[in-house]
């Protein structure tokens, strides 16, 4: 079973007008996970709320976890609040849940699957996030198909702006 690390920290707002909110994680906490390499993925729960997959992002001698507005509102926290954090090392394959529809499209398209799995872990997560962020199941299938076709048409590369334009086009 993965090691769980519990600690308290403050929800901090970026000093810039960016609106970013984050949790500060000290290096001594990050070290407890024994990460190898530069990618540090964890599953985070704040004040006992719903757990979410995220990265420990480096910033000097500290790390931080970005907490978006939706999560802050669901938990009922604001900048300056001291929160209880529970972290578990994320040992999942992708660092995000793979949507069933996307998994099925990849399963049915060997070339698309090969190209997807040749991408960096970060690009894979970005595409998974892109597909999973669609709430309508038919549209999610459509976006999964578009992602795979995009990879095949571009030699296994993601051309961000082109892909987003393809997704924006009406289905019919």
What does this structure look like?
The structure is a single chain. The protein has 172 residues and is of the alpha+beta class. The protein is built from seven helices and seven strands; from the N terminus they run ββαββββαβααααα. The protein has helices at residues 27-31, 69-75, 100-108, 110-118, 121-132, 137-153, 160-168; strands at 4-13, 21-26, 41-46, 52-55, 57-59, 62-66, 82-89. A seven-stranded antiparallel sheet has the order 4-3-7-1-2-6-5. β5 (57-59) and β6 form a beta hairpin. α3 packs across α4 (110-118), α3 (100-108) packs across α6 (137-153) and α5 (121-132) runs antiparallel to α6. The longest helix is centred in the C-terminal third of the chain and has 17 residues, at 137-153. The chain is globular, with a radius of gyration of 18 Å.
How would you summarize this macromolecular structure in one to three sentences?
The protein is an alpha+beta fold and 172 residues long. 40% of the residues lie in helices and 24% in strands.
Number of strands: 7
Task: Round the Cα radius of gyration to an integer and report it.
Answer: 18 Å
Query: What is the chain-wise order of helices and strands?
Result: EEHEEEEHEHHHHH
Taking strands numbered 1, 2, ... along the chain, how are they ordered across the largest sheet? 4-3-7-1-2-6-5
> How large a portion of the residues is in β-strands, by DSSP E?
15-25%
Task: List unreliable stretches of 5+ residues.
Answer: none
Q: From the helix content, strand content and strand pairing, which structural class follows? A: alpha+beta
Shape descriptor? globular
Distance between the termini: 48 Å
Whole-number mean pLDDT: 92
State the helix count: 7
Helix content estimate: 25-40%
Q: How does the major sheet shape up?
A: 7 strands, antiparallel
